[in-house]
Amino acid sequence: MPETPVTDLRDAIEQVEIAYEFLISFAGEGIDRETVQSGTGQTKEYVADFEAGLADGYEAALAVADHHDEFDTPTYRSFLDDMEPEIEEARTVLQLLSEQDAVTSRMADNLNGMAVFQSVMMKFFFLDELTDHLERE
């Protein structure tokens, strides 16, 4: 299937979901600054994937309206406009996390507890369901 905004959106949502699930799992491992060094590289890769997925997913969601008239509405665009500051906030948190020498389980747990991540994830899942019928064989 050729790449389209809808398939790009699905791919980005999957990327974000995998990274988020990893961080939730990592949060439960109890890794502190003394034990963190061996897993920091892998954790930072997931953080980078999460951040990139948020950016890519938002761009794909914007592009959906350009390719599907049923989403080229003031309401859809308003939904995305309202989502943009949350995407930026979440990306900033992830960028800050990636700048750290060590990523601990408590950091990942605190990230998971932030309302912005829960909101962004649920909005992406909502967009996935909203656009699910598009471009299916």
Task: Write the SSE topology.
Blueprint: H1 5-27, H2 40-67, H3 74-98, H4 105-113, H5 115-131
Helix pairs in contact: 1-2, 1-4, 1-5, 2-3, 3-5
Structure description:
With 137 residues, the chain is an all-alpha fold. It has one domain: Four Helix Bundle (Hemerythrin (Met), subunit A). It has 5 helices and no strands. The protein has helices at residues 5-27, 40-67, 74-98, 105-113, 115-131. It is elongated, with a radius of gyration of 16 Å. It starts with a helix and ends in a 6-residue tail after the last helix.
Mean pLDDT: 92
Radius of gyration, Cα only, in angstroms? 16 Å
Which structural class should the secondary elements be placed in?
mainly alpha
The tally of helices reads 5
Descriptive keywords:
mainly alpha, 137 residues
Outline:
This protein is mostly helical. The protein has 5 helices and no strands.
